[in-house]
Amino acid sequence: MSKKPFWMITAGLLLGTTAAHASGASEDQFSLAAGVDYTSGKYGTDTTTDIWSVPLTATYNMDRWTFKLVVPYIGISGAGNVIPGVGRVNNTNPHGRGHGHGTGAAANAGTTTASGTGSASGLGDIVASAGYEVFQSNDHSFGVDLTGKIKFGTADANQGLGTGENDYGASLDTYKVYGNWTAFGGVGWMKYGSSPYIQLKNGFNANVGLGYKLSHDDDFGAYYYYREKIAANGGQQSEVTAYWNHKLNQNLRLQAYVLGGFANGSPDYGLGASLKYLF
After folding, report:
1. DSSP helix/strand/coil, 267
2. Which positions of the chain have pLDDT values less than 50?
3. How far is CA 259 from CA 18, 180, 256, in A?
4. Beta strands in 138-191 (DSSP E)
5. What one-character-per-residue DSSP string does 196-250 give?
6. Domain 7-278 has CATH 3.90.550.10
7. What's residue 122's pLDDT?
């Protein structure tokens, strides 16, 4: 298997909510990772919504292929019309979070939109992806990856943990190494599933960033992520994430990040960390 920055494996999958940039493996390899992510923001509402996630990630690298499965457990507290991974929506589900599951007068008012507040937790949306390295230069300083993914609607729509529908996407990502520096970026497109209660439209996304290899064990960097507006009363995503990766030993990696949002589709801020073990 060719050698490439590990960020290429995860780009287009969870970019914007997690940061995982480290050195890649040079042979077929399997890894498991566990993390904790937290975000907070108003998403254009009058209420602050806090979302946390504990994702479990399995990755297998084989020749030019990278296969990944992410299974998250999530919790959310806040506006009933804010959906994890989506943002503010018009949620008319009569059983949604904020309709009998929340607190306050709006939660039980019987309105057509779940605009009250509430808390819920449970299994999130499971995401599967397959990436293929379509090109890499002989000196490994330049590469292009094509990734396809499916987000299965496994999160409970009646608790406002997800839309209950499947999403399908593809992304094209590239990188260029200049000594200790790595410039990277990509574009993607998602087909978002709509339900009778939540209507979404398809949308493009893009990212661009710069990383620096500080030492054999440490690298850090930052990237900007954008996603166009996908809900009628929602907003675009616009956020910057700074990340740090540390190699604890030959098999164990620590990754951490912080992010700041600049649009109603993004949280105001977030942070997270994960541990990855390479077998």
Report:
1. coil
2. 1-14, 16-26, 100-112, 114
3. 9, 23, 11
4. 142-151, 167-178, 181-191
5. SS-----EEEEEEEEEEE-SSSEEEEEEEEEE---STT---EEEEEEEEEEE-SS
6. no
7. 96
210 and 194 Cβ atoms separated by less than 8 Å: no
| Token pair 């990772």: residue | 33
Compute, in degrees rounded to 10, the torsion defined by CA atoms 149, 176, 34, 189.
-20
Entry pTM = 0.86
Asked whether the beta carbons of 239 and 261 are under 8 A apart, the reply is yes
Query: Torsion-angle region of residue 164: left (phi > 0), alpha (psi -120 to 50) or beta?
Result: left
Amino acid 48: pLDDT: 96
Hey, what amino acid is at 218?
A: D
Q: Find where tokens 């990383």 sit.
A: 211
The alpha carbons of the chain give a radius of gyration, in whole angstroms, of: 19
Residue spans of the domains in the chain: they are: 7-278
Cα separation, 279 vs 266, whole angstroms: 35
Please name the residues in contact with 92: beta carbons below 8 A apart, sequence gap of 6 or more: 112, 113, 114, 196, 197, 198
